[in-house]
Amino acid sequence: MLFRQYLHTNPVAASYFLGCGGQSQGVVVDPLEDQVDFYMEESKKLGMDIKYVIDTHLHADHISGGRKLAQITGAKYILHRSAETNFEFTPVDDGDEIIAGNTVLKIIHTPGHTPEHISMVVTDKSRGNEPWFVLTGHALMIGDVGRTELATDLRQGANDLYHSLFDKLLQLNDYLEIFPGAYSGSVCGRGLSGKPSSSIGYEKRFNKALQKAGKDEFIEFMTENVPPQPDHFKTIRKRNQGKE
Q: Quick one: 2-225 is in which CATH superfamily?
């Protein structure tokens, strides 16, 4: 498997290029609009055709390059089926698999940060049949979890995120690596680490948001000390929905 993590600074976000080098089948996750040319250059440099472009959710902090990149490359643009948009996309559901050669991405619907949010458990079949890591978008991040009021009601989002975390992501093997969609400096979390990767087991032990004793305490934690909302977040999300 080829795997690249790109740490952007304006805005603060992470995007990914991964897939099967042997069969030249690549996947780009959470691309930024102003980095589309960069992903095309990476595609050539890595010798990887871009077959799939995936957004973990309809972002509210930056403009996605997902649709543009898919149009240029002929790739499938993937969102969770529940995404509310004014354009067509390739829908996925919880449990679906995206296969790019020896690389398999299993979809987990993880609402909370936004209703349509997905995470992806990644397996490299050339190494083994067990998952290797998980791309968690803005659901589970390093040192914190995603804020819950940019696309839905604050408490409802926190309730949904609790189940996404404790019933789904934290049920994965502790050794699985976590690669999130944001890191320290992002407006989508509060106590985010500057280290842009971790593991399920480490976050279980040291992520403050995951130390709460039950759903009620978690919801109270998520609804206190909420940081200022990003500028123009409603407009940004609408543009990513094709509504602006």
A: Ribonuclease Z/Hydroxyacylglutathione hydrolase-like (3.60.15.10)
- State residue 190's pLDDT score: 83
Please name which of 123, 206, 108 lies closest in space to residue 163, comparing C-alpha atoms.
Answer: 108
* CA 156/CA 153 separation, integer angstroms: 5
pLDDT range class, residue 187, cuts 50, 70, 90: confident
Quick one: pLDDT band at residue 29, thresholds 50, 70, 90? Answer: very high
Sheet holding 25-29, edge to edge: 2-9, 12-20, 25-29, 49-54, 76-80, 90-92
Q: Using CA atoms, how far apart are residues 56 and 33, in angstroms rounded to an integer?
A: 15
pLDDT of residue 145: 97
Alpha-carbon span 7 to 134, nearest angstrom: 17
